[in-house]
Specification:
Strand content: over 45%
Helix content: under 10%
Number of helices: 9
Length: 881
């Protein structure tokens, strides 16, 4: 019955897709005046500069700039007076044109579509000018947009001190965008959600996880600019939309003289990096390539302040090709290959592990390898001066291998009772097509995306703890195993698990699963600009067919009003979204309850990974103060039915998606920007986002908190965080300095609800949180006990805020990681020897300047325990041409 229903839905939607594609194909052949269309996240600005008589002005200088993102580009007109800026991110720009013997001319340009923006610029005879001074006013600092977003260009990206060299993209997003809670290993929690983030890389949708323990990211060297959408997502974005990161990559189109750099760096923990990037081409074609190699002795954030068994390396290659076939047709192609290899960091408990026979079996030696490739060709067709058609395909694969220790009993630890290996792959293939039309007050975009994701999972695991079966009970709570006779009561969990107990002669259990997930989406949206008003109207339809099925009609509405006399923009927006399950370990998490061994070993909730839906509301205000400060604020309310989370398997990077009945996420975001003021710029982002989840758990493998039936704060809930980035370059050609101040009030740490529970932790775990009572302090050699701390005061922990006795409440007063202040600094010189064509650069970066000992999380259900980076210094030398 269900299969017939699914088939009917697919058939209905497929007919609509065919009709849409046929319509788009019919309108494609119309030809018009020449222009140049761009990829999905960027457009082009082109035009002609003329004098008062209408003659072309050759050699005129044209500059465009966005003072908030830091984007700046200039061009010189040709003999026909023409100029062109390609690969320009969607944003408003301030344009200035000037030529000797003429007065300079300024104009504001709002670029919001792939449809080329054509300008006719008329200069007036006036005082001779050989240079252009680009100055913004308060009106240039605000955007009449209903969607809250953050724009960042290379001017900021290149000078931000980043903590994570192997997850630099998510590290960058965490620093520059409000509402993002920082977590370990490059994970970021956007607006109160676990991994509900998606990337749009030159229009290619990537909704699977890209942190370093799931996948490999594109190199930050390939990024020209970022737009991080924190507001209600427009209709073109679906699947995972709590945070949408639009990436515009660099291009070699129009770079007639080869331009690039070669660099190398070395720093703390033996971290070394070497790489290059190169852009070259003509007005008809271009190529940009970036490649780098990284190795580090602190590849992941370890569970100890001192990294142990934490080596890793990575090779990353990205290539973008652009080719203009004709006046109307352009081909683009993005290609990436990345391979990373890394160890699972050890705790002190993972050293010299004592096996089941009482002998030393050595150190835990678990490792991972991830291979990622991506191919994404795109064809753009200029239909008319008002319309552009795009057709693109993509294939992306993550191959993940997790290797246990050579001696399986070396995997035994305080939270590990099993040894496990994993070999899984995720292959995402799809096709997307859209048409953009700009005319008068309308900016219309309609599109179709079809994705087919192929999942394969192979897991092997066995019991390595001889005490696991003796501690296991039957359904009535009675012991079901006799350790004296090594026999289990038939029909009980002990009988199911005995064959995989390696301490009693058992063998590994193997789980194999494969499935495919099909997703189809269609959308249409229109941005209507009328006077001071801006209306974003859209609707999206999604059909999801995986291990569960769902379909959803998703209206999106936004309204903005620009009070021009005061440079104020008011906005409200609403979005309905479909929330789809995570693909990582989806099969075992969904079907594990049906496998007797898995159900007996790992708690699970029988369900079919149901998809969810969300209603979210946003209200915001943007205010410019003069021309040197703009403040942008937003309040959010998100209500989700079937809200997703993760559980972690022991001390491994393997996680399982789980599903809760619903969640409520309120919060506020604030961003303040100071554009360039005599070489000084500033960016301040801050937020407070609650993540309240409501039982029961309705699906997934691994049962976490919230089983008492009461609402609870998930472990990425954070009361307040902020990042302040200051940047100063006193002279246009000279040294610069970049400075970060990062404050986090602390994520929820549900494993230590009170001091009594903390006393049950082992010595290493107590030392990690800095447990103390009276004058006693937990050490690696001696854990604190209830007897030793009886009558001692004060008591608590230095790195975890434990609620006072009797005050803990999973919703109102949960335990949290202690607040932390971290400071980073980077100092550099971009042209050491004042060269013109060839330049040498030198940069010195210090992360965690004060060497603060602090935790990201502690015994998190998502990822375990991790410390922030100790003080780390890096020196980088570059050659630019």
């Amino acid at each position: 019955m269900r299969r017939n229903f699914d088939s009917h839905l697919e058939s209905h939607w497929n007919r609509r897709v065919v009709q849409g594609i046929l319509f788009l194909c019919l309108v494609c052949p119309f030809l018009v005046t020449p222009a140049f269309a761009q990829l999905g996240n960027s457009g082009s600005i082109e035009g002609v500069v003329k004098d008062p008589s209408g003659s072309s002005v050759a050699g005129a200088t044209v500059e465009i700039t966005n003072p908030i993102s830091g984007f700046h580009r200039e061009a010189v007109t040709g003999t026909d007076g023409s100029f062109r800026f390609t690969n320009v991110p969607f944003n408003p720009y301030h344009l200035v044109a000037a030529a000797p013997g003429f007065s300079s001319m300024t104009q504001d340009v709002d670029l919001r579509s792939t449809v080329p923006t054509s300008l006719q610029i008329a200069l007036k005879v006036g005082t001779a000018s050989t240079s252009v001074t680009v100055e913004a006013n308060g009106g240039d600092l605000v955007e009449n947009e209903s969607t809250f977003h953050t724009d960042v260009d290379q001017g900021i990206i290149d000078r931000l001190p980043l903590e994570s060299p192997s997850s630099s993209v998510t590290s960058l997003v965490t620093l520059v965008s409000p509402g993002v809670a920082a977590d370990s290993n490059g994970n970021m929690h956007g607006l109160g959600d676990h991994a509900q983030n998606s990337f749009s890389v030159d229009g290619q949708p990537i909704t699977d996880q890209t942190s370093k323990v799931f996948s490999n990211q594109i190199p930050s060297d390939s990024i020209q600019s970022l737009e991080v959408i924190s507001g209600a997502p427009p209709a073109e974005f679906g699947d995972k939309t709590s945070l949408v990161i639009k990436v515009t990559t660099k291009s070699g189109l129009g770079v007639t003289k080869p331009t690039g750099s070669v660099y190398t760096s070395y720093g703390s923990f033996g971290t070394a990096n070497v790489g290059f990037d190169l852009a070259y081409g003509t007005q008809k074609w271009g190529n940009f390539i970036s490649a780098d190699g990284l190795k580090s002795g602190r590849f992941l954030d370890p569970p100890e302040f001192t990294p142990i068994h934490d080596k890793g390396n990575e090779v990353n290659i990205f290539d973008r090709v652009d080719y203009q076939l004709s006046q109307f047709d352009t081909l683009h192609g993005n290609f990436q290959y990345t391979r990373s290899w890394f160890q699972t960091p050890n705790t002190f408990d993972n050293l010299n592990v004592i096996g089941p026979t009482g002998t030393n079996v050595g150190d835990t030696d678990q490792r991972s390898k991830i291979g990622t490739f991506n191919i994404a060709p795109t064809w753009t067709r200029l239909i008319s001066s008002n319309a552009v058609f795009t057709l693109g395909g993509f294939v992306r694969q993550d191959q993940y291998n997790y290797y246990p220790s050579n001696n399986p009993f070396a995997d035994l630890g305080p939270i590990n009772s099993e040894t496990i290996s994993q070999n899984r792959s995720l292959t995402n293939a799809g096709v997307r097509s859209d048409i953009s039309y700009v005319k008068g007050k309308h900016n219309i975009k309609a599109g179709i995306t079809y994705e087919h994701t192929f999942l394969k999972e192979n897991d092997s695991f066995g019991i390595i703890d001889p005490n696991l079966l003796p501690s296991t009970t039957d359904t009535l709570g009675a012991p079901c195993f006799n350790p004296t006779t090594n026999t289990a009561v038939p029909g009980t969990p002990c009988a199911t698990l005995l064959p995989i107990d390696l301490t009693r002669g058992g063998s590994l259990f193997t789980f194999r699963g494969s499935t495919d997930v099909k997703e189809l989406s269609m959308y249409v949206q229109d941005t209507i600009t009328q006077g001071n008003w801006s209306f974003n109207l859209g609707i999206r339809g999604d059909l999801y067919n995986g291990l569960s099925t769902a379909r959803q009609a998703e209206p999106r509405v936004g309204i903005a009003y620009n009070i021009k006399p005061t440079n104020t923009v008011l906005r409200i927006s609403y979005a309905r979204t479909l929330e789809t399950p995570f693909n990582e370990n989806l099969i075992v998490s969904t079907e594990g309850c049906n496998v007797s061994v898995i159900a007996a070993l790992i708690p699970c909730v029988p369900a079919n990974s149901p998809a969810g839906y969300r209603n979210e509301f946003h209200a915001g205000l943007q205010q410019a103060f003069g021309k040197y400060l703009v403040v942008d604020g937003e309040y959010i309310w998100k209500y989700t039915h079937n809200a997703y989370d993760f559980s972690v398997l022991g001390n491994t990077p393997i996680t399982f998606p789980i599903d809760w009945h619903n969640s409520k996420i309120p919060g506020w975001l604030l961003r303040a920007s100071v554009p360039n003021f005599h070489g000084f710029t500033a960016l301040v982002v801050m937020s407070s986002v609650a993540a309240r989840y409501f039982p029961p758990q309705v699906g997934g493998l691994g049962v976490t908190v919230g089983q008492n039936g009461s609402v609870f704060r998930i472990d990425h809930d954070e009361k307040f965080n902020e990042t302040t980035h200051l940047q100063y370059q006193p002279w246009r050609r000279g040294p610069w300095v970049g400075f970060n101040w990062r404050y986090d009030s602390g994520l929820v740490a549900g494993s230590v609800p009170d001091f009594a529970t903390a006393l049950t932790l082992d010595a290493d775990q107590q030392t990690a949180i800095g447990l103390f009572c009276g004058g006693l302090q937990a050490t690696l050699q001696q854990a604190l006990t209830a007897a030793a701390c009886a009558g001692q005061a004060p008591f608590g922990a230095t790195r975890v805020s434990i609620p006072a006795p009797g005050t803990e409440n999973d919703d109102k007063n949960p335990p949290r990681v202690s607040p932390r202040n971290l400071f980073d600094i980077a100092v550099g010189e971009d042209n050491l020897f004042h060269g013109d064509r060839y330049k040498w650069s030198l940069r010195f970066t210090v992360v965690n300047l004060t060497n603060k000992e602090a935790l990201y999380n502690f015994l998190s259900t998502f990822s375990g325990t991790h410390f922030v980076s100790p003080r780390a210094e890096t020196v980088e030398l570059g050659f630019h041409f």
